[in-house]
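User: Here's a chain of 119 residues. Predict its fold as tokens.
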Amino acid sequence: MTSRSMCDVAYEILSSKTGEVPFVQLWSNVVQQMGFTPSQAENKIAQFYSALMLDVRFAPLEGNVWDLRTRRTYHEVHVDTSKIIIEEDFGNSDDDDDYIVNEDEVDFDKTKKEQEDDE
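Assistant: Prediction complete.
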């Protein structure tokens, strides 16, 4: 007897459909076919979602709707990562020291103008 993974079951479900399926409906069908109890379903939903995201057979679409990647064009499933900001692009953490102010160096009783004049 071979045991099927949740993603294999989801693949079979989507293969039998003609188009995309909302995640909630897909999960409900997987739960039913796998025979999960409500407690098991609650414990496994995050694992299923993560596995679905990592499985190249599936295409996540806008609105938490899923389809098979083979039925979608490149432009429908491609995520443009060129606009993603990476922390390294803003310099290193050594630059942060330039913005730290020592409380001993600031006279809180003086106005900002008086402090600037002292400098």
